[in-house]
Amino acid sequence: MNFKPGPRAIAALFLCAAAAPTWAINVSIPGIHGDVSRTLLGNGTGIIVGVIDSGMDDTHPALAGNDSLGNPRLVAEQSFVTTEPDNTGDDIFGHGTAVGSIALSNDSVYQGFVPDARYVNSRVLDSYGGFPDDAQVRNGIGFAIDHGANVLNLSMNYFAALSGGYTQFDLMIDWAAYARGVSSSLSVGNISQGPVGVDAVRDPGGAFNGLSVGRVINDLSKVSIDSAGSYTEDGRMKPDLVAPGTLITAANSDWEGGTLWKTGLNGTSFAVPQVTGLIAQELEGGNTHGYSTDPLVIKATIMNSATKKVLGRTFQPWAPGNMSDIAGVETTSHPLDPQSGVGLIDGAALARQYLNGANEGPGLVGDIGWNLNSIVDQATADYTINSPLSKGDILTATLTWYRHVSRTDDGDGMVDAGDNFIQDQMLSNLDLEVLRDGVPIAASLSAVDNVEHLNLSIDQTGQYTVRVLGSTVYGSSEQYAVAWFVPEPGSVILSIWAAAFVGIGWRRFATRS
Questions:
Q1: Distance (Å, rounded) from C-alpha 192 to C-alpha 11?
Q2: Across residues 55-74, what is the average pLDDT?
Q3: For residue 252, what are the β-bridge partners?
């Protein structure tokens, strides 16, 4: 169904914190080891980021010029704000330039995740940061896709609490991943900017096939009290993960009359491009090494490499939505933490997850790996870790699959708001289990999500298997991506680790010591 909101829908705006310390991107990005992943995965060469926002100032020194291949960094720009017809993409509001710079800045000090990536500027928010309906946003998304965007950044939300996945907005994002291979990083929203008294994810954070992002405070210790959390209207768990989004320093669109950088920016808006940046890094890494860059792989590996060190809004430890013992099997039907999803993004861990265990299995596998595969109804696929795990080890596994969405063009040959997007088959139900010596000990069995996740502290030595189950598969088969990770005992995935092994064969470190 099409959503036609009455009051103006409001973007997930930033709040400037007066007299507060700042956390520039040259601090926040290393804080989640995004500088390490930039070295190991790539700085964005050959990747195009679609920034769907209030426009971008492409003359800002951190965004202007050419990439290392001699191509203009700005691929294309257009404004879809019909009430401001004279604007061709310039950022009057100041939001899009700041957001985009977190991913794209090539400043020597305030360097973004992918300083060599190119970008499409789709201006969809007006000079006040709002949009009357989502048609102009969908037009902007289509423009970015048609101009080659590999990943979309949407740092905005409806004011109304819509997150059931049924709008054309949701369906378009899910189609982009499923049919075009375009990943999306999406805001779950700021509580203070939603309906009064509602702590719930808002669109586009409710889309199935994107990565929905919440934010943490600037010391990375806990989720911000203003970051929206579970559940969606149809009972799914969001956010998928969290990222820095508090007291950020980023590019100033009004730099000609002021300073190059603005400080004290807060909101999920500024967490989203941190995930966009990691996606873009991983896309270049995949292109370089010949690995799959399917959005399912991107989603599974980024989620599975997240750290559980982040606490909830009131300092509670990471925990799935619910966990119970069913006949000796630790079972959850709500596999993510209601406030932090799988946890805090970690670039160094992502680089190790993606580069160390490329597309192996089913069968005997290493401690770290991922696989893109398909499964039929009622079938199983087993990934048995070839070395026994011991007490004190931690095993993390993530499974994701698509919501299937098709598109009917309106006849103009462009992806835009005139097209019709429809879910063309029911969502398959895949499940995830962990077995010890062939016996199930843990299970993630959500009946509504298209993500399953398990994080286990090993208490007995044994041979462990990650199992994918095709519990209900619609159609002939269902494609999925699964990722698993067992850190070496006593180790922490930090920049020190990555720096020590740059240039050394990755496979050498694929098995445990």
A1: 12
A2: 98
A3: none
